[in-house]
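> call design_seq(struct)
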């Protein structure tokens, strides 16, 4: 093992077919972030993990659903469990409900992550508390595919209070905002169920977004960044 391997880690070994799938994804045209939201496809995502430590815990599942034309496309959704070599602890399983058997028999990580990329395409990503989801997905893609994932994200944890500043202090969790808008969840802490609830929140914010002329993904991210600055300086 040379010093480069020690510094950057072992390079993932992909089969020729897997490398070709990754190359096809890389070559897809970038999304137009200035295109009208109603004419764009956004992918809302949530993850389940072995814990909350972004440095040491592992990605267990990804749930994702597309929002296109102002509609949640349930037929355009995915949920995938990554095969685990080490099962998460009992307390963790009680949270997300992914059994030890389901973890052990999950999809091999390379195949699972390639499937996620193929589902995603180059559509922008939306989540609630992006930092966690992004870090866990980024690390898994780097570990298993050798991919540096430079993708566009928008965080509803900042967008929501930017639109409803009077609720900024009292509404900090996804559950708070779900309750505010009467959003139900068929299986809280299931990756797909939470992604669908986050997508419903995105649609619940639509009227306010339109009123403020936030009509594309670029404007959505600008609003998020402005809210981050507000929170950091307040």
């Amino acid at each position: 093992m040379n010093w480069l391997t020690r510094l950057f880690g072992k390079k993932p070994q992909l089969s020729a077919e897997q490398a070709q799938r990754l190359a096809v994804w890389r070559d897809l045209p970038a999304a137009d972030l200035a295109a009208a939201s109603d004419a764009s496809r956004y992918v809302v995502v949530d993850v389940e993990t072995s814990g909350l430590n972004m440095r040491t815990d592992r990605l267990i599942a990804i749930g994702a659903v597309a929002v296109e034309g102002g509609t949640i496309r349930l037929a355009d959704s995915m949920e995938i469990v990554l095969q685990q070599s080490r099962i998460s602890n009992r307390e963790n399983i009680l949270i997300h409900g992914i059994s030890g058997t389901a973890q052990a028999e999950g999809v091999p990580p390379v195949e699972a992550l390639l499937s996620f990329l193929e589902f995603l395409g180059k559509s922008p990503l939306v989540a609630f508390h992006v930092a966690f989801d992004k870090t866990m997905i980024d690390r898994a893609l780097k570990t298993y595919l050798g991919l540096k994932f430079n993708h566009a994200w928008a965080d509803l944890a900042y967008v929501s209070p930017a639109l409803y500043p009077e609720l900024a202090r009292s509404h900090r969790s996804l559950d708070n905002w779900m309750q505010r808008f009467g959003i139900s969840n068929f299986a809280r802490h299931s990756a797909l169920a939470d992604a669908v609830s986050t997508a419903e929140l995105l649609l619940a914010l639509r009227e306010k977004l339109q009123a403020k002329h936030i009509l594309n993904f670029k404007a959505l991210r600008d609003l998020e960044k402005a809210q981050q600055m507000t929170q950091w300086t307040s």
